[in-house]
Amino acid sequence: MSQTVDRALSILPLLAEGPADLGQVAERLGVHKSTALRLLRTLHEHGMVYRQSDQRYRLGARLIALAQEAMENLDIREIAHPHLVRLNESCGHTVHLAVYEDDEVLYIDKVESRYPVRMYSRIGKPVALTVAAVAKLLLADLPEAERRALAGTLEYPLYTARSTPDAPAFLEELARVREQGWAVDLGGHEESINCIAAPVRGADGRVVAAMSVSAPNVVVTAEELLTLLPQLRRTADAVSGEYSGRTTAKEPA
Amino acid sequence: MSQTVDRALSILPLLAEGPADLGQVAERLGVHKSTALRLLRTLHEHGMVYRQSDQRYRLGARLIALAQEAMENLDIREIAHPHLVRLNESCGHTVHLAVYEDDEVLYIDKVESRYPVRMYSRIGKPVALTVAAVAKLLLADLPEAERRALAGTLEYPLYTARSTPDAPAFLEELARVREQGWAVDLGGHEESINCIAAPVRGADGRVVAAMSVSAPNVVVTAEELLTLLPQLRRTADAVSGEYSGRTTAKEPA
DNA sequence: CGAGTCTGTTGCAGTGTGTGCAACGTCCAT
DNA sequence: ATGGACGTTGCACACACTGCAACAGACTCG
């Protein structure tokens, strides 16, 4: 791989933490100031970083524009979005859409809860693989070999007492999820937050995305949340149908 | 600037148009396939591009995550402050910056008038929603439903004879403000104080903040204050540009 | 079934490109 | 004035990047 590009790209996550000046960037990269300057200049010319009035650098607009374009190209998102909105209107809770990519599961869309108490999440943010309901669905659909290999390399942080403890337990959970066609996370990531998820499938039956409904204990109990499962599954199935071309969003009048 | 990084970054907008394979990337960059491969590999390691099942490359998830993080860290106050100062230096009056948060409008920055007679205000203090010029701008940008709901729950205290009397009048005023893109408060809060305001908009056009110039009657008449409107709007637009990353504060000479 | 042609990938040698250094300019505080 | 901190520039060296050519695998066609 390319050293120069590697260094340049390493600057971006660094700046994502907050603005930094030339010296800080150079130090954290472990290179000379002049080197850092040239990298930053190149990034600047491409609009990836932006120089604010105090001369410090922060991430630039082009990055945001590119990301927006990237998301627009995810057609699953486009199709699913109105369904997420409708689901949120009906139940009021936070609704997420997630996909699997390069050993990560990421939220690619989200409709905020209409309750004042909300869970924190961010579009684009990698999800806790071993506990999140959407992650279980997406990973459960991987080929057997890949699934076992991945389970072996993962870490199993004990966010709470109910977090998945180790690889065998995880593989067992994935098998159950695969079997039943939906998944839950009952306080496995944050003690007080529960989550149910259902798969969106492509024409070939492969799981292409997962959608979920999340709510804190203080708003609804786990049992109450589970009563939403049929509605969630119907919504996910509707998205699946549309994505695989079997049905359309609105029948032509 | 760096050739290697320049080439690597040029790949991103290219992929934003749609997925492309190695050959296409190499051709459009004007480099050998092997060169393009190494660049793509480096981008891939940083999650900036993703290799889909048909081996073609797409923009990657980390790009989305970075952009999202960047947007969270944007600090309007930091960006706007020097502009407020400059505006104050030019006109001498009190300049405010306000945001909408949880059914309240708050001043988050202020540059004091250079005239001896000043209006009283405090950073962090909630603003009188029904009369303040900045509040009108921020509320006028809310979704129709939310705006109507909020207007219904508000109280309409008659600070002065020119205060907004009730919900219908308020909604009408908001519609006008929304239409014209700026707002005034002529003695609606304190009999002797006038105020003009203009919106700061994010990349998506949503109003993220409002800035205002306030002055008591004894210093300038309402008509005189209104002559500052173009300058105020230009300043607000400059902040908008910077906030959404379209422009930079100062290009390095 | 094997020749042909597409892909993507790897090792290598030359050199052009990125590197660190040192010196300079500027700003600010003392 | 004087020192320090910071961004910037020019330069000589070396090394990281480049393009080439050869290889490997998938696929198509006769």
From TrEMBL, chains A, B:
Presence of the UniProt keyword NAD in the record: no
Classification via InterPro entries: GAF-like_dom_sf (IPR029016), HTH_MetabolicPath_Reg (IPR050707), Tscrpt_reg_IclR_C (IPR014757), Tscrpt_reg_IclR_N (IPR005471), WH-like_DNA-bd_sf (IPR036388), WH_DNA-bd_sf (IPR036390)
UniProt record, GO biological process: negative regulation of DNA-templated transcription
Keyword ATP-binding attributed: no
Keyword tags: DNA-binding, Transcription, Transcription regulation
Alphabetized Gene3D superfamilies for the sequence: 3.30.450.40, Winged helix-like DNA-binding domain superfamily/Winged helix DNA-binding domain
Record-linked PROSITE patterns: HTH_ICLR (PS51077), ICLR_ED (PS51078)
Domain of life: Bacteria
Sample GO molecular function, one term: DNA-binding transcription factor activity
Domain HTH iclR-type, chain residue ranges per copy: 2-61
Limits of the IclR-ED domain: 62-245
PANTHER family per record: HELIX-TURN-HELIX TRANSCRIPTIONAL REGULATOR, ICLR FAMILY, HTH-TYPE TRANSCRIPTIONAL REPRESSOR ALLR
Protein name as it appears in the record: IclR family transcriptional regulator
Organism for this UniProt entry: Streptomyces griseorubiginosus
